[in-house]
Amino acid sequence: MNKKIFLSSDHGGFELKTSVINFLKEGNYDVEDLGCFSLESVDYPDYANLMAKNIKNNINSFGILFCGTGIGVSIAANRHSHIRAALCTSVEMASKSRKHNDANVLALGGRILNNLIIKDIVFQFLNTDFEEGRHRLRVNKL
To answer: Mean pLDDT throughout 88-109?
Structure first.
């Protein structure tokens, strides 16, 4: 069974978020769109915080955050102790963020990435397991 995936964005990530939601629904993932719901300007910390709250209330869930670059939402999300948000621009980064860092949130830039690579990044993030052992010791220090 797929884990719950919460998606949230500001206006700069809205279009990419919409594309990713469609991709995930086609793959029968359990997704919930937390907003924003248009291109109207909003503040990215509000949406990162909303996603963090939902992750906290849903054990073992994932989050995907979007803004123009992915930087702002990743900074905002990582202020929460239960979040390990990784800004990824490649499939390799998505894989390593899960294997080595047990990332539970993927941050993406709507003005940085295109739909050709984004599906591969999202798929890799959601389908890569954390490697226990020495990596667990390091993550526990966070």
So the answer is: 96
The catalytic position among 11, 80, 100, 135 is 100
Q: What is the DSSP track for 33-44?
A: E-S--SSS---H
Please state, in angstroms and rounded to a whole number, the distance separating the CA atoms of residues 120 and 138: 27
DSSP E strands: which ranges in the chain? Answer: 4-9, 30-33, 62-67, 85-87, 105-109
The dihedrals phi and psi of 23, each to the nearest 5 degrees, come to -60, -45
Token couple for 69: 């670059």
Every domain of the chain and the residues it spans: 4-140
Query: 4-140 — its CATH code?
Result: 3.40.1400.10
pTM of the model: 0.92
Tokens 């955050």 sit at which residue? 65
* Residue 124 CB-density burial (10 A; 0-12 exposed, 13-18 middle, 19+ buried): buried
82 belongs to the catalytic site: no
